[in-house]
Amino acid sequence: MTRPPTAAQRRVIDAADPVTGRLRGTESQLAALVRHGLAFRHPRPPRDHFLTPAGHRVREEREAAARPETAAAAGATAPPPAASGVFAARVGGEEDAGTGPARVREVHSAWQGLLELRRMTNRDGGTDRPCAWERTHLVQAAALALEAAGHRPAGAGPEGYRVRATPQPEAVAVRDPDPVALRACAATLEAAGWQVGEHAEPRTGARCLLASPRRV
Q1: Where in this protein does the record put region Disordered (predicted)?
Q2: 195: which strand partners?
Q3: Distance CA 185, CA 125 (A)
Q4: By the 8 A CB rule, do 63 and 83 touch?
Q5: Smallest Cα–Cα separation from 38: which of 19, 58, 15, 65?
Q6: pLDDT of 38-79, one tens digit each?
Q7: What is the pLDDT of residues 91-131, one digit of tens each?
Q8: Beta bridge partners of 196
């Protein structure tokens, strides 16, 4: 990319599907995003356009700039909330971790969109393992798999799962004080195409999961 996207192109990027990155715009706008490395055209019908990882970064940087208070407020305990109108899976620790019918529908739609993204971007069209987007959004991807399967994210109290980044490449940590619920989280992630191992944390001895996207 040699120059920043135009205002019209930024509007197209901002309006992309929050999970799949599918784009809608004029042919000239989409072609320009492809030239700049911010989008790609899928080779299979209906040959829609999608954000590349660079395109996702552009949108995420704009969202972060629109909410400058979140980085300081969130600290290391929980990722910042999504901007208004943008879906975000609950990683645990959010103040509002309730699950009403509208939230259930929203999560189901996001999960189906992610499966479609897998189908369209994995080389063999497989939906049984994570795609490139998930590998660059590990915490959100793992949390979406858990929430879509009906697991309860932690709220203000200790009960429920929490998904956090780790120093290890392509690995997230999943914690739940209930050992039965933790094992159920492991089964869900394995079914969603993640490699999962259970470990004892060195300082506390508490059990946690380390999960990484499976490649084959």
Answers
A1: 42-84
A2: 212
A3: 26
A4: yes
A5: 58
A6: 888 887 777 889 888 778 878 877 766 665 443 333 333 333
A7: 998 876 556 788 888 888 889 889 988 988 888 889 999 99
A8: 211
CA-to-CA dists, residue 208 to 13, 32, 33, 106, 129, angstroms: 37, 45, 41, 28, 22
Q: What is the pLDDT of residues 134-178, one digit of tens each?
A: 999 999 999 999 999 999 999 867 789 999 999 998 999 999 999
Rounded CA-CA distance 136/134 in Å is 5
Best CA proximity match to 195, nearest among 181, 176, 214: 214
- Dist. CA 61–CA 206, nearest whole Å: 35
Nearest 5 degrees, angle CA 173-CA 181-CA 158?
Answer: 70
CA dist 154 → 27, 174, 197 (Å): 44, 11, 21
- Residue 80: CB atoms within 10 A of its CB come to 16
- Return the closest-CA partner of residue 10 out of 43, 27, 32: 32
